Prior knowledge:
The structure holds 2 protein chains of 2 kinds.
Chain A: H1 2-9, H2 28-56, H3 66-73, H4 76-104, H5 108-135
Chain B: H1 14-40, H2 47-55, H3 60-88, H4 96-124
Helix pairs in contact in B: 1-3, 3-4
Amino acid sequence: xxHGTAAVAKIDSPRSPYVRxxxxxxxxxxxxxxxxxxxxxxxxxxxxxxxxxNLMVGDGVHAIDFGFxxxxxxxxxxxxxxxxxxxxxxxxxxxxxxxxxxDYATRDMTRGILKGLLYLAFTVVVVLGTLVIFTFDPCxxxxxxxxxxxxxxx
Amino acid sequence: MPTAxxxxxxxxxxxxxxxxxxxxxxxxxxxxxxxxxxxxxxVRVSPEAYNAAISTYQTExxxxxxxxxxxxIVFHAFNGIRIxxxxxxxxxxxxxxxxxxxxxxxxxxxxxxxxPRHLINVFTGGH
Lengths: 154, 127
């Protein structure tokens, strides 16, 4: 009997034991899902603050001109505020539109072109916006003083 | 004349329509954002260029457009909080319909606070 048992043990199991299939795509979509929720909460505060200061305080939309923007960006807090808003909103929005393209553009070619355009727009807008915030000159030379914030002539 | 079989089209209720509205408002906000960064970038060109561009926003028509933009943002923001609660609050899925009505209520209250102030600025402001 001992001999027979040893012979049986040599036969391979007909099925491989259950092994949980390893995910092959990484956790990208999980991180994107988490990012949408985390950035959404921060954006709610940043954008409501932005709208309140620019549309509700003082003369609202009529008060917005070069001097208004220059006055805000003279304060580092508003520079950080706007920079954070630019990056978070652009990543949040690009990721949302990416999801929509994945849902509705069924042909590989169409999907590729649309996402290519989306990522191009993302890059241009984020790079341009970041450069503007960091290289902004509130008192450009040869500009009429009445268009500039009051601290330029002080 | 063959008639379409009844009841085959999925008509979700509050859940589906809030999802549709979240997508529509999200896309609208995104395209506005692209334009808004470009127009703000004109501050780097010259004060005159920026003021000329921004003054095209300061008309009655664009003022109404801004009201629509703010409405889209307010809905998207409050419904986003509802999505967070559905995902992370144990009782969220059970109360998702109730929470949509709360979102609509908060939307009405917020717009009631914003619209009079904004529309008075738009229709009686200077320029």
